[in-house]
């Protein structure tokens, strides 16, 4: 007789740390979590966006990042994308049994974002933001594209983000991060009908 514990799917978790002369970043990710998060990046707006990502994707996420913020936010934001992407890639393992594709239309008051994800192993980012605001307080929102570019590279995923409209910049980027969370959660979900990896090639 097979025990219930033996039948349970393996946990999809990873811990990754990356240390350079510019940043020191540690990420712990549980793909099958409940949306709990502890985020400390030194950049309040980014903390908020990543808390939303964890909450709405039902990912348990711990991030502790320090970097040369006195120079610029760029190194910390980009390296954080790399480490989070690496953690997702490791947590998903061989990607057997996953849905692979996910998408979301995410409204936030007057803003709307469309997001589509393919966990097929080929990194590519399409990033279109209708809101033209350049800064939220002292944070250059142009760095969010660098974050997602680094994220998709290490996660080996295809990500399309289209913020269609919305005047308030906070709402615009909140709809983006929530949309990515929902689409990615759907793509990571297990489908019991899938045998092996969801690809005609037999590998992702």
Overview of the molecule:
- The chain has 204 residues and is an alpha+beta fold.
- The protein has a single domain (4-188), classed as 2-Layer Sandwich (Ribosomal Protein S5, domain 2), CATH 3.30.230.
- Helix content is 34%, strand content 30%.
- It has 5 helices and 10 strands, in the order H-E-E-E-H-E-H-E-E-E-E-E-H-E-H.
- The chain has helices spanning 4-7, 44-57, 74-92, 143-155, 169-188, and strands at 13-19, 23-30, 37-40, 60-67, 101-108, 111-118, 124-129, 135-136, 139-140, 158-165.
- It has a 4-stranded mixed beta sheet, covered by helices on one side.
- The model has no long low-confidence stretch (mean pLDDT 94).
Mean residue pLDDT: 94
Known CATH architecture: 2-Layer Sandwich
Strand neighbour order, sheet with most strands: 1-2-4-3
How would you sum up the major sheet?
4 strands, mixed
CATH superfamily: Imidazole glycerol phosphate dehydratase, domain 1
List the helices and strands and how they pair.
Layout: H1 4-7, E1 13-19, E2 23-30, E3 37-40, H2 44-57, E4 60-67, H3 74-92, E5 101-108, E6 111-118, E7 124-129, E8 135-136, E9 139-140, H4 143-155, E10 158-165, H5 169-188
Parallel strand pairs: 3-4, 7-10
Antiparallel strand pairs: 1-2, 2-4, 5-6, 6-10, 8-9
Helix pairs in contact: 2-5, 3-4
Features:
4-stranded mixed sheet; Ribosomal Protein S5, domain 2; alpha+beta; 10 strands; 204 residues; 5 helices
